[in-house]
Design goal:
This protein is 42% helix and 20% strand. By secondary structure, the protein is α/β, with parallel strands linked by helices. The chain has a 7-stranded mixed beta sheet with strand order 9-8-10-11-7-12-15, sandwiched between helices. Strands 3-2-1-6-5-4 form a 6-stranded antiparallel beta sheet. The protein has a two-stranded antiparallel sheet with strand order 13-14. The longest helix is centred in the N-terminal third of the chain and has 20 residues, at 2-21. The chain binds zinc ion (ZN).
């Protein structure tokens, strides 16, 4: 009898985990997860728990008041999950442990959950907690995208990446350095004792001082020479939604028109290419947000889902359970989508599935890790894809980089030197009307933390696939040759697009040269 109840509860937690990990709010996930449950007692308790949560209780506290159904361990795991923002991970744990007979059903008593490293003396705990909390707050308030924590033989280096550039911050006191790493691992839902294997985790924080803004963070921990190195990627949902307007990404009017008309085609592949951190997924999400409509069904396969897009069903790949990109795509095709987003093409199998998807009448948005637009075509050929299949399915490749924008508060107009005019001319910027050229230099003020730069914008290279490019596709074709053909048809390079933004006073020559170094 006990076994049946444990099974039912395990089923409940597994379904609950799936629901919340795909973005369903807790209360709704609770009721949906009970739909296939037959245990009446469990169903009724969940009903009561739901109303307790609605009147302000935490899930763990609400469960505790139903100790006849949930074990102390289950409640503790949920409490840790709620504290650390890793509820889905903990729900999966509970399901596993119930199934394995490792935890009982029922028997919870109120417990105090301590979520700080056990290594640290009680007096030190608050110091470590405070340090980590402040560090996260500080990084967020500086607009950082990442926090890097790296141990060396005698020190712990902490740096924030702001607008794409790393900034070192003051080193924490030596006595708490080790505990800082443990504390982060713990709140990210990682196994603190495991120090020899890379781990991934997540942190969700509600920032009171920013109007209860919710911020998600993705945490990666790898064992390194002097200890564990941690990288925290800050997924800033609010500033993301500001970015999600496709017309604010930095496309020139002509590029915007081309991009918009391409994503409105009924079938075919659109590839966004660029190195890591060039804003590829932002463009994909913005495209999905633009295409959102009740008449179109959008499905995504991602690694991992970074942002929830309203109106689309999003799946995170999980190779450990066999949910790879190709398996994910094959399964979403059974869901009759109109638009499919696949976060990255990494191998031949995925490329082949994407082409199949496009050729069977779907629009596919995806990314490739290449330096420029023409290389996306040669990369696919190198993976083993037949050139005629690429030719018959690819619509557009958009390559991009992010440049830092000048701080509008302190930028200073500069005189145009002959060398500058020459450089602009070389990059096809029209210099005939000098009054339209407004170039600035970075200065620095408190608003931009003395860097002279604030925020970032994309520079693009859009290559629509027309008959001329299709014709030249074949084994042995070089990206240089494709570039030549595309240039003849008027393709503007990323550097040219960047120089146009320099001439309009948005960024600087140094900045454009920095991010386009190594591309033509
Ligand atoms: Zn400034």
């Amino acid at each position: 009898m006990i076994d049946e109840r444990a099974k039912e509860q395990a089923l409940f937690w597994r379904q609950f985990k799936l629901l919340i990990s795909s973005g369903v709010p807790v209360v709704r996930a609770l009721s949906t997860a009970t739909e296939s449950i037959v245990d009446e007692q469990l169903k009724q308790s969940i009903e009561k728990i739901k109303s307790e949560i609605e009147s302000g209780s935490s899930l763990a506290d609400a469960m505790r008041s139903h100790g006849d159904l949930f074990s102390e361990i289950a409640v503790t795991l949920v409490a840790i999950g709620e504290e650390a923002g890793t509820l889905e991970f903990q729900a999966q744990q509970i399901a596993n442990e119930l199934e394995g007979g490792l935890i009982p059903v029922g028997g919870a008593k109120p417990v105090e959950v301590i979520v700080v490293s056990e290594k640290v003396e009680p007096g030190e705990r608050s110091k470590v907690k405070e340090y980590v909390d402040n560090m996260i707050l500080d990084a967020i308030s500086q607009g950082a995208s990442d926090i890097h924590i790296e141990p060396f033989s005698q020190s712990l280096m902490i740096r924030y990446r702001v607008d794409g550039v790393l900034r070192e911050v003051e080193e924490p006191q030596e006595d708490i350095q080790l505990a800082i790493v443990d504390r982060i691992k713990m709140i990210a839902g990682m196994d603190v004792a495991q120090k020899r294997f890379p781990q991934d985790g997540k942190i969700r924080r509600t920032i009171e001082s920013m109007g209860n803004k919710e911020i998600d963070m993705r945490v990666s921990c790898v064992p390194a020479q002097w200890g564990e190195a941690i990288t925290i990627r800050i997924l800033d949902v609010l500033s993301m939604s500001a970015w999600l307007n496709i017309s604010d990404l930095g496309f020139s009017p002509a590029d915007l028109e081309l991009f918009e008309s391409s994503i409105r085609k009924p079938h075919g592949i659109i590839i966004v290419s660029g190195p890591t951190g060039s804003g590829k997924s932002t463009v994909l999400y913005a495209a999905l947000a633009r295409l959102r409509s009740t008449e179109l069904k959008m499905l995504t396969v991602e690694d991992p889902v970074e942002y929830g897009i309203k109106g689309s069903t999003q799946i995170t790949v999980n190779p450990e359970i066999g949910l790879t990109f190709p398996v994910g795509i094959r399964n979403i095709l059974r869901q009759d989508p109109d638009i499919v987003m696949v976060s990255e093409i990494r191998d031949y199998e995925t490329a082949e599935m994407i082409i199949h998807t496009a050729l069977t009448g779907h629009l596919v948005l995806t990314t490739l890790h290449t330096n420029d637009a023409p290389s996306a075509v040669t990369r696919l050929i190198d993976m083993g894809v037949e050139p005629f299949l690429i030719a018959s399915s690819l619509i557009l490749v958009s390559a991009q980089r992010l440049v830092r924008k000048l701080c509008p508060n302190c930028k200073e107009l500069i005189e145009l030197s002959d060398a500058t005019l020459e450089l602009l001319t070389q990059n096809n910027v029209d210099i005939s009307d000098k009054s339209k050229l407004t170039l600035f230099k970075a200065v620095g003020c408190p608003e931009c933390r003395q860097t002279g730069m604030r925020g970032r914008i994309g520079i693009f290279e859009l290559m629509p696939i027309d008959d001329d490019i299709r014709e030249c596709m074949g084994r042995g074709i070089t990206s240089r040759k494709i570039r030549e053909v595309a240039r003849q048809k008027g393709m503007r390079s990323m550097r040219e697009d960047g120089m146009q933004k320099v001439a309009s006073g948005i960024t600087t020559i140094d900045e454009v040269m920095r991010v386009t170094a190594g591309s033509s």
